[in-house]
Design goal:
35% of the residues are buried. It contains 16 helices and six strands. The protein is α+β, with helices and mostly antiparallel strands. The strands form two sheets. It has a four-stranded mixed sheet with strand order 1-2-4-3. It is globular and about 60 Å long.
Amino acid sequence: MSPFAHERAMISLLSGRPLPPDSLRRIRPEAFLPLCRAHRVAGLVYEAAAGADGFPAEILPPLREMARKTLVDNLVLLRALQDAAAALSEEGLGFVLLKGASLLGFLYPEIQLRPMTDVDLLIREKDWPKVAETLKGRGYRMPAPDSERYYAENWYHQLVESAQVPPTYLEFHWNLESVERSRIDPEELIREAVPCAIEKEPYLRLGDDHLAVHLCVHLAHHYESPALIWVIDLRRLIQTGHLSWERIARLAKAWGVRNCLAYSLGYLERVFPGTLPPEARQVRLSFARRILLGSFRTENPVLPHRSLAGRPLRHAVSMILLDRWRDVARYISVHSFLRALRSMPSTHPRAPAEKF
């Protein structure tokens, strides 16, 4: 087979483009199935492949099983969300859904089409102690003190394990990005959140323009080993036609995430050419950044560049995605200081190693 033939077949199915019969016959389960699993698109591929003439019949049952597993896993997560929402509502604590959960019923009419690993919620930072107290009193497992302190100091979220069987995870955020890297206004995100419904349960999600910025920031954060499902999230949102690109560009510039926006939109256009409207194509990385990222080029059509997982140069790419070079200097100096501080002798267990 030609290089990356399975990747091209997967993209064709997800794009709704018919595959030539000879390409269909060359698809091998041992290569195609792990690819769909790694990119978390098995349910979407099954939906497309089930109606494709000539698609290898032996691949459909395992794709269907992966989709069913996603359905079961998502139902467990949604039950955890419902229980947590009820507990927080009793205490007058609100939240806004983020990422995968917020897309169910909106961009994905069937919940088995969008896998989730946890449920992400946006809260006000000042509400975290009360959220933790409320959930702890109902049997939820809170992060250990060292872990809670570490994430409070270095990131912008806390991870909570549900009390249900089987247990699952809820991630409470108070920002979309590290404050050393950006200037995102979480109050604006919460203030302009819009209603949504999942399995007839009412919640709030980010408004469409804010959601577009968030999906781009999230996708850029996973530059080391990106998954195609995050590209599809963004593609489906753009296809709704409800976005104000002028406002999105203004927000990204003001919040210091313009490079994240440009990186993710460029990735989307690489995988699904023609998706971006003309105004979105104006958002581009600077010439210098394009040159630097170009040194990691790949022929793999489902990736923006070759995988950087575990490579020392991944830190350099992380810094390239910051908008201002002075933010790079500040981020490095702040985290170098914190790393040095944690290396000093202490009577407490050491926190996990920081990463860029």
